[in-house]
Specification:
NADP binding; 263 residues; oxidoreductase activity; oxidoreductase; two-stranded parallel sheet; mainly alpha; 6-PGluconate_DH-like_C_sf; 3-stranded parallel beta sheet; 6PGD_dom2; N-(1-d-carboxylethyl)-l-norvaline Dehydrogenase, domain 2; globular
């Protein structure tokens, strides 16, 4: 659902916008605000323009880029901004594919929940050719970027940063669940524990927001499929780099096994 507030921000900034969603009804709020609705991904593309994708995984992203006329329509001078969390290998492959068609691939994965997008509090690492990054920067700012961090021109680096960040976020979330669960079992008020620790030793937005939700029992981190997907991508990237990542392996086992680790 992150794409909805991001696109709405662009419309509020008076960008002309053509949108596509494989579930057409999900685009209705944007159409009501002035967006045009496309029947297929390639219909969102204009020659030499900027097209933005935000999809679930590598397969979905590759299917869009490989769909009929997408790269041909984008053409020389066109820029594809990928905001999806995918593998570094996919980023590199798509960057090469765009280069062969004369277009440019820029990675700009997003840190932030839908409410952060609506509040224009997103953090975005970027990677790609410098000229293209400069061209898309105003677009990213209009989308709701509070901070844009440049990780060079090599494809794969920005999505690696996103995977690292998500690995740390998931690790923090699971640690908080266990810690505050132990506080409750031991007779301490989880809300008071969360408030103390996140205002002293751990005064970071992730600990503060997730700590509050977990203590108040308004969040169930096991319901989302995102942690398992992204930790899996992090672990695969580590294995491809021949880098040992034992904590990631254990975390993925926990995510795949649900509550088995607590039994």
């Amino acid at each position: 659902m992150l794409g909805l507030p991001i696109a709405a921000n662009l419309l509020q900034a008076r960008y002309a916008l053509t949108v596509y969603n494989r579930t057409a009804d999900k685009a209705k709020p944007l159409v009501a605000q002035g967006a045009l609705q496309a029947a297929r991904p390639a219909d969102t593309v204009t020659a030499g323009g900027i097209v933005v994708t935000l999809v679930w995984d590598d397969e979905a992203l590759e299917s869009i880029v490989g769909s009929e006329d997408f790269l041909e329509r984008l053409g020389p001078g066109g820029i594809h901004v990928s905001m999806s969390t995918v593998s570094p290998d996919t980023g590199r492959k798509l960057a090469d594919l765009h280069a062969r068609h004369g277009s440019v691939y820029v990675e700009a994965p997003v840190f932030g929940r839908p409410e952060a997008a609506a509040a224009k509090q997103l953090w975005i690492p970027v990677a790609g050719p410098q000229e293209a990054k400069e061209r898309v920067r105003p677009v990213l700012e209009a989308m709701g970027a509070k901070g844009i961090f440049d990780f060079g021109e090599e494809a794969g680096t920005a999505v690696l940063v996103k995977l690292i960040g998500n690995f740390l976020i998931v690790s923090a979330g699971r640690s908080l669940e266990e810690a505050l669960g132990m506080a409750e079992r031991g007779g301490a008020d989880p809300k008071a524990v969360a408030e103390m620790l996140t205002s002293t030793l751990f005064p970071a937005p992730i600990y503060q927001s997730y700590g509050k939700m977990i203590a108040e029992k308004t969040a169930n981190l096991s319901e989302s499929k995102i942690p398992q997907k992204d930790v899996g991508l992090f672990l695969a990237a580590a294995q491809n780099a021949h880098f040992p990542a034992p904590l990631a392996g254990q975390l993925l086992d926990m995510l795949e096994g649900g509550d088995r680790s607590r039994q």
